[in-house]
Design brief:
Its main location: secreted. It is found in: Secreted. It comes from Lysobacter enzymogenes. There is one protein chain. By secondary structure, the protein is of the alpha/beta class. It has ten helices and twelve strands. It has two domains: 210 residues, TIM Barrel; 67 residues. Helix 1 runs parallel beside helix 3 and helix 4 runs parallel beside helix 6.
């Protein structure tokens, strides 16, 4: 019998892209299939996220419970992840950033990466750096990487409009085209989202309108990010959307209150730890899965870990 400190632990897995791109956000389709097989080999009970959240709140989650989530709404969620999930008859929740429904389906970090990878750049980066920032040399691979890492960090607290302006400035500076060209990594279209949501076991959840760092913004912006995303998805799908994912896993008390008042039944963050009956239903931690991970070992560790409240007071009302 498990001890009280580990009883009721569950694991919520976090993925982004299922693709052979070889970036930090990617797990290849072949490895994703192996990881899904590892869940079966470990005797895991794969459940819909909302059902798992309810079971955790009641304190009766089945032993070795797992929920699968994929963030952002990349096209490969439909073309690669969902077919593999269907092979195993596993449900999953896909968290969608809805600003891509109204225009080019390229996320800002993908646009920035296109610029960073472009071979024919000037020797010095002197645009989109923010007020008072000094130009940065790009004359070696190390300096180029450091420069664009600094630019990326500077994007996190920006407003949606500020990010759009800086991306446009970088694209002009680099000579690259805006999003929308064939072959570029993109988000799903509205029709593709409807197709995914119609598949058995596949559910869409809200991931904000613009993928902002919510704690960096006032309550009115937080409300817009959550409510506009939910409104768009519910209009598109013709059903309630009850789950939310904090962009970057970042939240504060204000964001949790907004999620509560918005009517979300469950919200997830990051944390790289198991969920448990101690987890607040609006601050459920997840385990990020990367290429090369020994998922079986990580699951064993997670199910054996001592339950923690994940940096948030369970008594929050």
């Amino acid at each position: 019998m498990r001890s009280d400190s580990t009883a009721g632990n569950a694991v919520i897995l976090m993925y982004h892209r299922i693709a052979d791109a070889g970036t930090d956000l990617c797990v290849s389709p072949a490895e994703f299939r192996e990881q899904m097989a590892a869940l079966r080999a470990q005797g895991c009970r794969v459940m819909p996220l909302l059902e798992l959240a309810q079971a955790l709140a009641r304190g009766d989650a089945p032993e070795r419970s797992v929920a699968i989530t994929l963030d952002d709404g990349y096209l490969d969620a439909l073309t690669d992840a969902a077919p593999i999930l269907r092979e195993f008859d596993y449900p999953a929740t896909f968290f969608i950033v809805t600003s891509t429904l109204d225009g080019p389906g390229e996320f800002w970090w993908e646009s920035l990466q296109r610029v960073a990878d472009h071979e024919a750049l000037p020797a010095t980066l002197d645009v989109a750096l923010g007020e008072g920032a000094a130009p940065m040399p790009l004359d070696t691979p190390e300096r180029r990487r450091a420069a664009f890492d600094a630019v990326r960090r500077g994007f996190y607290p920006l407003s949606a409009q500020q990010r759009r302006e800086r991306i446009a400035e970088l694209l002009r500076w680099s000579g690259l085209a805006a999003a929308g060209e064939a072959g570029q990594v993109r988000a799903m279209t509205p029709e593709e989202l409807r197709r995914l949501d119609a598949m058995p076991g596949m559910e869409l959840g809200a991931h904000s309108e613009n993928h902002l760092l919510l704690p960096a913004h006032p309550r009115a912006i937080k409300e817009h990010e959550m409510l506009e995303c939910r409104r768009k998805l519910e209009t598109l799908l013709g059903r309630e959307v009850l789950s939310f994912c904090y962009p970057y896993g970042a939240f504060d008390e204000d964001a949790v209150q907004v999620a509560e008042r918005a009517g979300f039944a469950a919200a997830v963050t990051t944390g790289n730890q198991p969920a448990s009956p101690l987890s607040h239903r609006l601050v459920l931690p997840r385990l990020a899965v990367h290429a090369g991970d020994d998922l079986g070992a990580r699951l064993r560790d997670a199910f054996a870990a001592q339950a923690q409240p994940h940096h948030y007071d369970r008594s929050f009302a």
